Amino acid sequence: MFQVPLGRRRFALAAAASAATLAVPSLAQSAWPSKPIRIIVPYTPGGFTDQMARLVQIGLQQRLGQPVVVDNRPGANSLIGVDAVAKAAPDGTTFGVVIAAYSANTTLYPKLPYDPAKDIVGVSLMGISPLLAAVNNDAPFKTGRELIAYARANPGKISFGSSGNGSAAHLTSELWKSLTQTYMTHIPYRGAVPALTDLMGGQIQLFL
Fold first, then answer.
1. What would the mean pLDDT of 98-114 be, rounded to a whole number?
2. Distance between CA atoms of 94 and 10, rounded to whole angstroms?
3. Tag placement on the chain: N or C end, fewer CB within 10 Å?
């Protein structure tokens, strides 16, 4: 179990996410928590990261006897939500859930609104998730081989969605494009839910 010091730093729950495990502060710290806990999710409600946070929410409420609120702050490839964590009162009651985009943002943006080395500290790995490819039902490909063949024959015609620039889905798709020598158009979203909505509606053909 990890002990969470109630010092100057805010906390980020490191989530690459799937197995719902979370270390909580030692109960020997009887003064913590003295008020409701907030878990900031930098993505839209209903997506994978949000669902993981809500699993943790249930467990924390049962164990700590304090209300736990999930606060969705989507946008700017998670910068808005993570910045809210960094600027929260350093009293140990504000947590954030971060995934691959959190690490990627340090190279994607020349200047961040927070210092990831000083303002955020990791608490626990929540889990690890595989990436699965989903296609629109009307897409002219149903298998991986058919997708590669179609993408090679129609450069740029396939639009694929991700939960944002620098997300695991985005970076994996770019690697896949390089390995298969294909070209597809990337459409970044503010989370998985709006991307899946557009996938079902036919606005994009592929989502990872």
1. 84
2. 7
3. N
